[in-house]
Every structure is written in structure tokens, then in C-alpha cells.
Amino acid sequence: MTPTVGHERRRAAMIGELRRRGIDDERVLAVMAEVPRHRFVPAHRARDAYGAGPLPISCGQTISAPAMVAAMAAALGLTGTERVLEVGAGSGYAAAVLSRLAREVVTIEYHPSLAAGARDALAAVGCANVEVRHGDGREGAPDRAPFDAVSVAAMAEGEVPAALLEQLTDDGVLVCPVGHGRRGDLVRVRRDGHAEHLMPVSFVPLL
């Protein structure tokens, strides 16, 4: 079996597992069936890229489990016309998924080496509609606001950063883990502050 065929089979198995876990957004599943997740993990972990769990990358960070990436993308309800802000680019994988679900994505990463790596990986797989920035994700990207959707891939301490809510369109939606330390709840919040609790989650802290 060639490496390419092996990755395709593992990716198909990943999609089957997502369905078994209750992910039923067909658009999200179709995109995740296309994005080469193994291109966003360290080379020695490529064979593990399509497993069920998160994987370590560098700088003490992780690439989220496929089910979490799928759940967060589905919770945004994207149709393809949106401008999306992602906080916590990490390896760039979730941004690659979002880039195929929305019109454009701005993603922010606190660690400069991760930002550079995400930029290279996204370019290598042809994601031309993603801008990768290095900076404090809690501040968002006010020069590109408003955003139709915001996805935060790190745990906000106690509450969603106000600057991110302020950068939403009037009918925009923000999905973010909120809690203390590494444990909390994934919430979906509207600009007016209305919040829905979606599921308990574990994430690295928002930096």
C-alpha cells in the first residue's frame, strides 16, 4: 500500500467514526474527507493523524481531535459566504477545514513558530483564502471586522473575550470553550450575549 492510499483509507475510516459519534453535517464531513490532516502534524505522527484523539504538535499545543474540529465547524452553521475569524491556529488544520466552508478565514496564533508552520502547511495544500497572523488572539482582528463567525480553539478563562464578541456581525455567531484551566464547556454565543452550552470539553488555555 502506498502512503497516499494508506492516508486515504485512514481518512475514510475517520469519517466513518465521525458519523458513529453523531456528526451529521454532510458539508463538514465532505470537507474533512478531502483535507489531508496528515499534512498538519509532525511527520513522525502522520500515520496517527486520522485517529480519534488529539495529537501533540509543538510549543505545548495540540491538534484537536477530528470530532471536536467537526463539532465546532458544524456549530458555526457556515454556508460558504462568510468571513471567519479563528483564534488558535495551531497547526492550521481547522483553518483548512473552515477555508472550504467559508469565503475567507483570518486565523491568529500566539506562538510565532506555529504561525509560520501553519502558514506553510496551508499554502502547501492550496488554501489561498486563509490569512495567518501571529498575535494575541484575545484581541481578534479589528482591522478585518466584522466577522460572520468566530471559532476559538482554546479555553477562555471564565468568559468569552469581549473584543471577540464586538467583532461579530449583528447576526454572527461565536463558538468557544469557556472554563477554568483546561476544562470547561463549549458554548455558542451571539453578539447580544445569548449563549448555548453545547458540550463539556478540554482545551489548552487561551493565550
What does this structure look like?
With 207 residues, this protein is an alpha/beta fold. The chain has a single domain (53-202), classed as Vaccinia Virus protein VP39 (Rossmann fold), CATH 3.40.50. The chain contains 6 helices and 10 strands, in the order ααββαβαβαβββαβββ. It has helices at residues 3-20, 26-32, 66-76, 93-99, 112-124, 162-166; strands at residues 55-56, 62-63, 83-87, 104-109, 130-134, 147-152, 156-157, 168-180, 183-190, 195-202. Strands 3, 4, 5, 6, 7, 8, 9 and 10 form an 8-stranded mixed β-sheet that branches. A two-stranded antiparallel ribbon has the order 1-2. A hairpin with a 2-residue loop joins β8 (168-180) and β9 (183-190). The longest helix has 18 residues, at 3-20. The protein is globular. The chain starts with a helix and ends in a 5-residue tail after the last strand.
Hey, roughly how much beta strand do the residues contain? 25-35%
Which CATH class applies here?
A: Alpha Beta
Shape summary: globular
Helix content: 25-40%
Q: Report the count of strand segments.
A: 10
Pick out the low-confidence regions.
Answer: none
Terminal CA distance reads 41 Å
- Give the integer mean of the pLDDT values: 95
User: Which superfamily, in CATH terms, is the homologous superfamily?
Assistant: Vaccinia Virus protein VP39
Number of folding domains?
Answer: 1
CATH T-level topology? Rossmann fold
Using only C-alpha atoms, the radius of gyration works out to: 16 Å
